[in-house]
TrEMBL record:
GO terms for biological process: flower development; negative regulation of gene expression, epigenetic; regulation of photoperiodism, flowering. Belongs to the SHL1/EBS protein family. GO terms for molecular function: chromatin binding; histone H3K4me3 reader activity; transcription cis-regulatory region binding; zinc ion binding. Keywords: Flowering, Membrane, Metal-binding, Nucleus, Transcription, Transcription regulation, Transmembrane, Transmembrane helix, Zinc, Zinc-finger. This is Phd finger transcription factor. InterPro entries: BAH_dom, BAH_sf, Zinc_finger_PHD-type_CS, Znf_FYVE_PHD, Znf_PHD, Znf_PHD-finger, Znf_RING/FYVE/PHD. The keyword Lipid biosynthesis does not apply.
């Protein structure tokens, strides 16, 4: 008569091999891909489980990178952006390479420094259909694209919309020097606000000012000579 195999047991934590890091259900982890040329997969741990031989399995919910989705990567997708998918899987815990943090979009934009372990998510993704939740987000600028936290944008003091420097005919360096900014629509509505589109400018070239002054003096002296020559003696 065959013996019944001992049951599996749930684990509260798991120590990543070769590191001093411990992961628990709810943590986000980096998992080794089968293709070494690809970046590690990102997943959220749902459950840790050990069998009677102490082999540890991990049930995960996968995050997809934009390029792994049906629609592919688009202009507004950030370099560290992920989609929380409805794709669940069971993997060996040995494939866990490290821990990471998947921030909300709002919290990610507040980070002063983005580390290698920092990612963000603003969409849930249906792997079978390619659908997103939410299916609509706010758009900005003349190009009407969602916000990409990797791109510099400047805010109009009139309409409060945000704009890409390139869409407004500016370089990034010029945009960084702006003290105030009005978009073209707001500037055209009120001409008195045009001076707000100001850049730091260098002071006048002193040499050019002196040269202009010299020319004016010489011109004035010539006029005096001409006037004296045409005036008859008394």
């Amino acid at each position: 008569m065959a013996k019944t195999k001992p049951g599996k047991k749930d684990l509260d934590s798991y120590s990543i091999k070769g590191t001093n890091k411990v992961v628990r259900p709810g943590d986000c982890v980096l998992m080794r891909p089968s293709d070494s040329d690809k970046p590690p997969y990102v997943a959220e741990i749902e459950k840790l489980e050990a069998d009677h031989r102490n082999n540890v399995k991990v049930r995960v919910r996968w995050y997809y990178r934009p390029e792994e989705s049906i629609g592919g990567r688009r202009q507004f997708h950030g370099a560290k952006e992920l989609f929380l998918s409805d794709h669940f899987d069971v993997q060996s815990a040995h494939t866990i390479e490290g821990k990471c943090i998947v921030h909300s979009f709002k919290n990610y934009t507040k980070l002063e420094n983005v580390g290698p372990e920092d990612y963000f998510c603003r969409f849930e993704y249906k792997a079978a259909t390619g659908g997103f939740t939410p299916d609509r987000v706010a758009v900005y600028c003349k190009c009407e694209m969602p916000y990409n936290p990797d791109d510099l944008m400047v805010q109009c003091e009139g309409c409060k919309d945000w704009f890409h420097p390139s869409c407004m005919g500016m370089t990034i360096d010029e945009a960084k020097k702006l003290e105030h900014f009005l978009c073209s629509d707001c500037s055209s509505e009120d001409e008195t606000k045009r001076p707000l589109n100001s850049f730091h400018v260098s002071p006048p070239d002193e040499a050019k000012v002196k040269t202009l002054y010299t020319h004016l003096v010489n011109f004035y002296m010539i006029l005096l000579v001409i006037s004296a020559s045409i005036v008859s003696p008394s």
